[in-house]
Known about the structure:
Blueprint: H1 2-13, E1 19-23, H2 31-34, E2 39-44, H3 47-56, E3 61-64, E4 76-81, H4 91-103, E5 105-115, E6 127-134, E7 137-146, E8 154-165, E9 168-179, H5 183-192, E10 195-205, E11 208-217
Parallel strand pairs: 1-2, 1-4, 2-3, 4-5
Antiparallel strand pairs: 5-11, 6-7, 7-8, 8-9, 10-11
Helix pairs in contact: 4-5
Amino acid sequence: PESARFISLIKKHCPKARTILDIACGGGKNDYWLKKRFAVTGVDLSPQMIAQAKKLNPRADYHVGDMRSFDLKKKFDAVFFNDGIIYMQTGKDLLKALKNARRHLKPGGVMALYVEDCKERFEESKTSVWRSRSGGYDITYIENDYDPDPRDSSYEMAFVYLIRQGKNLRIEHDTHTAGLFSLAQWRKALKQAGFRIIEDRPQKLGDELVQLLVARNTV
């Protein structure tokens, strides 16, 4: 799983890391793997996602909170952002989220994240298709990315789900708005938030090319 890659990176740059904060943890799928190496604390805006994460990882510590403003009043050896940070749609909100992550990170601790889409590599109307089979369901996921206004810092992700169970077909759809920044804007925000970038490289995650960023708390 992709979590293994981030575990390896965190251990590489912070070998003594024992505690990790997973920001925008969702339903806890990454924590299922992170908990094998760290004591896990997770934060997510959705109470439903937190409830699901607790079922999957009952020994982890979970909290409902906004990544820009939550305050757990404790610090961690490492911070992990999965793809949830893409929902920061303005430079102001991105900086708030990164500063809050640093406030929860011990001096010298590391934060790992990846930039799923950036202005340099954004493909207008790119369409991706995935398929999964589990629990009697055969699900096809279709995602289309579209930027209605290239002058701003956001874009639209439209999803269609074809859900088959036996001979029955159900079709669901959803639309999300995510942030879209240049890599220079990401690097500037990290530095403004008090981080020093220690890894910065393109990386394949499945079929996607993302920008992998690892930063250290300079405070």
